[in-house]
Amino acid sequence: MEESSNYGHQHPLLLILNQDQLIHNQSGVTHCSRCGEEVSAPCFCCVEHCGFYLHKACAEAPLELNHPFHPHRPLLLMQNVPYISGEYICTFCGKDGNDFVYHCSCELDFHIKCALFTFNIAENNLKELDHFSLQHPLISTENGDEELEDVSKCFGCWEPLAKYTHFSPDCRFNLHEKCAKLPFKLNHKCHHKHPLTLQFNSERLSCKICGKNNELPIGFVYGCSSCKFVAHIECVSESLDPVVEDKRHEHPFTLLLKGSSFICDACGIEGSYASYICCTCNIMVHKKCTSLPRIIKSKWHDHRLFHKYFLRVEDFRVLDCIICHDEVNIEHGSYYCSKCDVIFHVKCAMKDKDLYEIVENEDEESPNEFVSSITKVLEWNDAGEATVIEHSMHIHHLTLGDRVGEYVNKCCDGCRLPISASFYYCTQCDLFLHKICVELPKVKHVWHHLCRPPLVLTSNEVFHCEQCLCFSNAFAYKCEECVQRTCLRCIIALTPGVLNYKQNTDETLKNDIFHTMNMQ
């Protein structure tokens, strides 16, 4: 043990060089006063045994770090996190922190260990990884197939850790062997002007090859700062196939390397340099869009959604995406419902894999397809409206009402809101239902409930709504997996497009629902 300077501490510090000395000096588990992690040798400890410990690397971390992966500004070591929340997200590992932070004004933040580790990667100084074992990328299952062993992601490329040979997690960094040994500079055929250098994506630019952009600027990218060119490590590494064939498109796609940007005809998002064209259909797409699903079933909508490269404007009353509400450019690809005039951006429909499933066979009946709660229509009027119906939630026939003003003191038994719009009523008992409540499906996928199975329409049960937290005995949608229920007011208010696109929905009911939701 050696006595050292106190690194800002009020007492002298001792340098502990091996783990046996550390165990002898500490009582219980102790943590580094800078990085917050459990202390291991070599480290410094207080000679007065006041509980102050520092990893040697944390103690000797420079106050200003000129990082090769971020050459334009230095990273400054700060004791206090420069955000009101008191927390930050590390640009390398993606985990939060509230201790010392290496910070740049462009909102890059690093744990001390992550800043120093990536600095060593840049300097090709990886001695600390020498004694950690390598693990193979795949494991075999009982049926002989191979699958990824877990869902952890590599901190460098953010691809699944188990996809490639990687270092043992004991090193405390999820890292592929290949990502630890990436060349600092390389030439790539998608950007001939300048070499690409390994860097942090501080400007949060989209990859010019695949068009995707991570929500957080975590991990590494290859980029050219002067040209604002960025490419994911995986996109730079993989080869660009000269011809791509996929069963979802009837013709092959051919690689076209361009020196300028293009708008993908499949998703409507800008791409650069590497595109694939179908000469028969005269379309140009990203490589990832050559296999875009033709049909999906989304939790955002009750019917199947179909992908089309081009749509006719006259087929839609409104061209706003019902998820983000921005206008959809129908001169490029989008998803639409063939039964309703609703439309989705591809990026919105495909954003979360948990919120949609791919329909491979168009003729195949899906168990979760729209099933009406109206079990039988007994009478129709001249306008084509169902005037007398049988409904799955009531034992008697329901009749379409035409005198809303006579029932202003009545409430819908489905949503518990006043009868202020088109409604059905029972002639044998005192039951009233809005037309929009009657037409809701028996089973329904909703984006705001995380369980995979659809929700099932129920009635005649007292329940606690998981969204508005109110108790009710009206209609509800129930999850058979977690048994939670959501009231109809919340279902309707949180379903994009139901109120905007149903032709016969009364504005008064729309206002009643949103006013009630805001009051709660």
TrEMBL record:
Keywords: Metal-binding, Repeat, Zinc, Zinc-finger
UniProt xrefs under SUPFAM superfamilies: Cysteine-rich domain
Domain of life: Eukaryota
Gene Ontology molecular function, alphabetical: zinc ion binding
Record-annotated Zinc finger PHD-type domain positions: 31-94, 206-268, 411-469
Record-linked PROSITE patterns: ZF_PHD_1
The name this protein goes by in its record: Zinc finger PHD-type domain-containing protein
Organism encoding this protein: Gossypium tomentosum (Hawaiian cotton)
